[in-house]
Amino acid sequence: AQKITQTQPGMFVQEKEAVTLDCTYDTSDQSYGLFWYKQPSSGEMIFLIYQGSYDEQNATEGRYSLNFQKARKSANLVISASQLGDSAMYFCAMREGWDTGRRALTFGSGTRLQVQP
Amino acid sequence: GAVVSQHPSWVICKSGTSVKIECRSLDFQATTMFWYRQFPKQSLMLMATSNEGSKATYEQGVEKDKFLINHASLTLSTLTVTSAHPEDSSFYICSAIRTVGGNTIYFGEGSWLTVV
């Protein structure tokens, strides 16, 4: 089974509008972390936001917020006030077993976001 | 500035030759580093976990003899693609964990490998 599922291969959004990128995950661990990364065409992985499994509040970082619904195992990224520079690939990732040392990230298939003027 | 540096950023090599990619943590010690591979328009796939002072742990389906990983110091891990073939052309990216102050993950800039 897929650990991380991103069902939107591509998304379009008008500049200045908000957009939600979907992510669902699958784990039996109680302790895990969820991440979102932005990857522009240069290839670098830019960290956007993190949500721990025990965090009760949804994470926010500037224009980025994470809609964490633990019971549904979803961790959607919301980008508010989209900018042209937001056009990139976006990856959802999970790190399981935080306390046990299994610390590699597992990535979803990604969503290509295109912001239109 | 980058806290994990990867070199080279771009490399072109001939089929049958070997190429080495370095991943260096600049201001922290990393006992564990990870190597990922990314084909065009695909996701990052974990290749192996690099452990300082011990053998790397490879993911299923990754050839150990082809992708040699060495983590000889607390700040440097290297990935050597041996006897490269055109199908090895890909984007390779490393990450390292800084455990001091929390398990923060840092990625290198990535390396584009083209085998001709």
Strand and helix layout:
The complex is a heterodimer of chains A (117) and B (116).
Chain A: E1 4-5, E2 10-14, E3 19-21, E4 24-25, E5 32-39, E6 46-52, E7 60-61, E8 64-69, E9 74-79, E10 88-96, E11 106-107, E12 111-116
Chain B: E1 4-7, E2 10-13, E3 19-25, E4 32-38, E5 44-51, E6 57-58, E7 67-73, E8 76-81, E9 90-98, E10 104-107, E11 111-115
Parallel strand pairs in B: 2-11
Antiparallel strand pairs in B: 1-3, 3-8, 4-5, 4-9, 5-6, 7-8, 9-10, 9-11
Explain what you see:
The complex is a heterodimer of chains A (117) and B (116). Chain A has 117 residues and is an all-beta fold. Chain A is built from no helices and 12 strands. In chain A, strands 2, 5, 6, 10, 11 and 12 form a 6-stranded mixed sheet that branches. A 4-stranded antiparallel sheet of chain A has the order 3-9-8-7, with no helix packed on it. Chain B has 116 residues and is mainly beta. Chain B has no helices and 11 strands. Chain B has strands at 4-7, 10-13, 19-25, 32-38, 44-51, 57-58, 67-73, 76-81, 90-98, 104-107, 111-115. In chain B, strands 2, 4, 5, 6, 9, 10 and 11 form a 7-stranded mixed sheet that branches. In chain B, strand 9 and strand 10 form a beta hairpin. In chain B, 36% of the residues are buried. The model of chain B has no long low-confidence stretch (mean pLDDT 93).
